[in-house]
Amino acid sequence: MATSLLSLAVAVPVAASAADAAVRVRGTVVARTGNVLEVKAREGDLVKIKLKDGLHINAVARAAITDIKPGDYVGIASLPKAEGGDGALEVLIFPAALKGMGEGSFGWDLKPKSSMTNATVSNAVKSVNGSTVTLSYHGQEKKISIQNGTPIVTLIPATAQDLRAGAAVFVSAEKAEDGSLSSGQLVVGKDGVVPPM
User: How far is it, in rounded angstroms, from Cα 115 to Cα 9?
Assistant: First the structure.
């Protein structure tokens, strides 16, 4: 059990510091040869990523808006709405053991002007069209509306066997000075559920 939670812990979407040349790769597995993963990125280019020893792999499982409760720890990618506030692009409900991991609100590259907020749900108000959650982090609060149909997932353990051709992946990679990419953590789609982050 401890191994599963450790593997979950390292794949949390977190802010990248300016010093660490972090790159997020979203796309589809083309092939895995030894410790090299080839991914067709969402931008259309073919990317090769060296998989580090001790690679941690997680999958995503479908969840529902009704699964979000006060006290839950979530990661929500969102965009500002024209009428004010933020609207969710996707929601990740973290396993309880990961509460507090990567806490905060920071810029995100899912879409232009998007942000990621990892925080505790202090209040959830349901409506006909969805819900509005109030998130608490570092003494601050942020309200985000979650419309019906917004992708909502949670993390589950996965293995290297899940990195087969055609699988959707979200890879947190490091870029070396020579431009090569390497990663010790990634999230893979499973059973038809695609990593939405």
Answer: 20
pTM for this entry? 0.86
d(CA 4, CA 83): 42
Where b means 16+ CB within 10 Å and e means fewer, 86-118 reads bbbbbbbbbbeebeebbbebeebebeeebbbbb
Token pair 């149909």: residue: 149
CA distance 85 to 38: 38
**pLDDT tens digits, one per residue of 15-33:** 544 445 789 999 999 999 9
The dihedral built from the CA positions of residue 78, 180, 31 and 190, taken in this order, carries a sign that is negative
Give residue-wise pLDDT tens across range 115-153: 999 999 998 777 767 899 999 999 999 999 999 999 999
- Please give the Cα distance from 163 to 172 (Å, whole number): 15
